[in-house]
Design brief:
By secondary structure, the chain is mainly α. It has 2 domains: about 10-40, no CATH class; about 65-185, no CATH class. About 40% of the residues lie in helices and about 5% in strands. It contains 7 helices and 3 strands; from the N terminus they run ααααβααββα. The chain has helices at about 15-25, 65-80, 85-90, 95-110, 120, 130-145, 175-185, and strands at about 115, 155-160, 170. Strands 1-3-2 form a 3-stranded antiparallel beta sheet. Helix 3 crosses helix 7 (about 175-185) and helix 4 (about 95-110) packs across helix 7. The radius of gyration is 40 Å and the shape is rod-shaped.
Length: about 200
C-alpha cells in the first residue's frame, strides 16, 4: 500500500478531489482490499448551521403637520356628510341660491380636501366681490329654509383665522361628500335651470 499524506482543501472542493482520488485508487495494485474513499464531507468538519439574525425593524417616519394643516384635518373630520337624498334635492333645486351652491360645490369637489378662500369661490357664483356678503347670506337662508333638518352646510366653511390663514372664509369638500356629489351630478341627464340667468361657470386650478 502506497504512502498517504493529509491534504487541506477548501470545503467546496472536497467532493471533487475525493472523487478524483477514489478513481485513481481503483486501478492501483497496492490498493488495500475493501478500502473506500468517500466523497462525503468528513463528519468531524461538518458545517455548523449559520446563525440567524432578525431583520431590523424600520420605524415609520413621523409626519408632523403644521398648525394650519392640523386645523384643516380637524375641520374635515368634524364635517357631517349629507345623505344622497339631500344631495339630490340640492342638485335638482331650481332656486338660484341652490345653483350658486352647486357652482362652488362642483369646483371644490373636483379637489377633495383642499381649502379655497372666499375670493376664489365667489367668482364661481357669478357675483362681484362687493355683492358676496349679501349672496352668502342668501345661500345661508336657502339652507335654513329648504334643509332645516340637515346639520351644517353641504361643504366645510370655516373662518380663515381658525386655520391660521387670512381673515376670510375657506371652503372645502371632504372625500366622501365629494364622491357622493359627483355620482349624483353624473346621474342627472340635465340639471334644472334656476329662475334667474346662470352665472358663467369656472374651475378652480
Amino acid at each position: 500500500m502506497g504512502d498517504w499524506i493529509p491534504l487541506l482543501v477548501r470545503r467546496e472542493d472536497y467532493p471533487e478531489l475525493a472523487a478524483l482520488v477514489a478513481q485513481r485508487e481503483i486501478g492501483r495494485p497496492d490498493r488495500a482490499l475493501g478500502s473506500v474513499v468517500s466523497t462525503d464531507l468528513p463528519t468531524s468538519s461538518a458545517a455548523a448551521p449559520a446563525p440567524t439574525y432578525a431583520a431590523p425593524v424600520v420605524a415609520e417616519p413621523v409626519v408632523e403637520l403644521t398648525p394650519t394643516e392640523q386645523a384643516e384635518v380637524d375641520a374635515l373630520a368634524r364635517f357631517h356628510t349629507w345623505s344622497e337624498a339631500d344631495l339630490l334635492r340640492l342638485a335638482t333645486s331650481p332656486v338660484l341660491a341652490a345653483h350658486r351652491w352647486r357652482m362652488a360645490f362642483d369646483a371644490c369637489a373636483a379637489q377633495p380636501g383642499r381649502f379655497f378662500p372666499d375670493d376664489r369661490v365667489a367668482p364661481l357664483t357669478g357675483v362681484r366681490p362687493e355683492e358676496w356678503l349679501e349672496v352668502r347670506t342668501a345661500m345661508g337662508r336657502f339652507l335654513e329654509t329648504h334643509f332645516p333638518d340637515v346639520p351644517g352646510a353641504p361643504m366645510v366653511v370655516i373662518d380663515g383665522l381658525a386655520l391660521e390663514r387670512d381673515a376670510q372664509d375657506w371652503w372645502a369638500v371632504p372625500e366622501e361628500q365629494a364622491r357622493r356629489w359627483r355620482e349624483i351630478r353624473g346621474s342627472l341627464p340635465q340639471p334644472r335651470r334656476p329662475k334667474a340667468p346662470l352665472p358663467v361657470p369656472s374651475v378652480l386650478d
